[in-house]
Amino acid sequence: MCSIFERTIYPDPESEKAIMGSVVYCIHHKEGCQWSDELRKLKAHLNTCKHDAVLCAAQCGAMIPRLLMQDHLRYTCPRRRANCEHCGKEFSGSALEEHQGNCGHEPVYCENKCGAKVQRRHTQQHVQQHCSKRLVPCRHCGQRYTQDTVSAHSALCSRAPVPCPQRCSAAPARDELDAHLRDHCAAGSVACAYRDAGCRFKGTRPALERHSEESTQAHLALVCALAARQARQLEALRGAVARLGASCSGALVWRVPDWAARMAEARAKDGVELVSPAFYTSQYGYKLQASLFLNGNGAGESTHMSVYIKILPGEYDALLRWPFAHTVSFTLFDQSSSPDRACNIVESFVPDPTWKNFQRPSKEPDALGFGFPRFVSHEMLKKRNFVKDDVMFLRVKVDPSKIVAV
């Protein structure tokens, strides 16, 4: 319990001797050193222990275990001397590290990923001249392709020249071959320009030119014949269109527009006749047409409006019963705003089978047909609303109970 300063401390030889004689392990026991002995021998052991760190023998300043000294001096010491494995030059350790990754003799992979390895100093030359992935222009179209695909492109390039299949001397571009064969090939066989008209000539272009000069009259005759055929076809088409638009119910409601202008024309000229669209009594029945004289005809001239019915040549006349013997009626509609007050004018007749007008027609009729020259007077037309908004409506109807058709 006394203060340490109040005592005089003296070394204890016996204790010191006991401590120095105790058994200890090497301080690098955990690094793998197996030495163990008396404490007094530890210092001597560390002077030789391969795990103990000592200054680098090349005096780089690093503390390196004796066990790793050779590797340090060979690979990591900044003051080591070593040769580059690619160019063979000698460098110090730090300079070698800077040199590695920049050595011109070191093999590296091509930056275009072609798979080739070339020395770093030759990479630019390889990329420009030897790399299979470098871009090169097609010599035909100018488009750029990689070196390993340009040959395949050239085999299909639209601008690549190809031999003419007619074996002429020309070599047109692939996309111009059809035009060459059609318009320019001297060896190809060409049809005459009038082939659609019937000319069957076919030969080379020089022969075609001679043929065109020598066959002018023949070509003109072919064109005239073609025009005649087309005219007949056009007429047949017009007839077919007319039949599609014609009424097949046995009744026609005829709309007569521009009544005032047409009446003025009829009064100024003699024999002005208006004809209606053709209509049929049924799909395979008689073909009929109405005609109208606004200023009258015959007994009704200048005082009445005259109406007539004509029988036209039809497509199914051979199957119908002749003479025509069905009741025909004409109705002029009163266009009064009140239907209850409308007063239509109706006239009808039964054909006389002895009249030639009702026999089977062989051609378009020149006669008036049959009807009423005094159908309605001009005075009556003014009294009622038979003409409204400059339009008149006239119905022509065949009695359906007497239609004879197949």
Automatic annotation (TrEMBL):
Principal location: cytoplasm
Domain MATH, chain residue ranges per copy: 249-398
GO biological process terms held by the UniProt record: regulation of apoptotic process; regulation of canonical NF-kappaB signal transduction; signal transduction
Keywords: Cytoplasm, Metal-binding, Repeat, Zinc, Zinc-finger
Cellular localization per UniProt: Cytoplasm
GO cellular component, one term: cytoplasm
Gene3D superfamilies: Apoptosis, Tumor Necrosis Factor Receptor Associated Protein 2, Chain A, Zinc/RING finger domain, C3HC4 (zinc finger)
GO molecular function annotation: tumor necrosis factor receptor binding; ubiquitin protein ligase binding; zinc ion binding
Record bears the keyword Heme: no
InterPro entries assigned to the protein according to its UniProt record, in alphabetical order: MATH/TRAF_dom, TNF_rcpt-assoc_TRAF_met, TRAF-like, TRAF1-6_MATH_dom, Znf_RING/FYVE/PHD, Znf_TRAF
Family annotation (Pfam families): TRAF-mep_MATH (PF21355), zf-TRAF (PF02176)
Domain named TRAF-type: residues: 44-97, 99-150, 152-209
Zinc finger (TRAF-type): 44-97, 99-150, 152-209
Protein's name in the database: TNF receptor-associated factor 4
Taxonomic lineage from the root: Eukaryota, Metazoa, Ecdysozoa, Arthropoda, Hexapoda
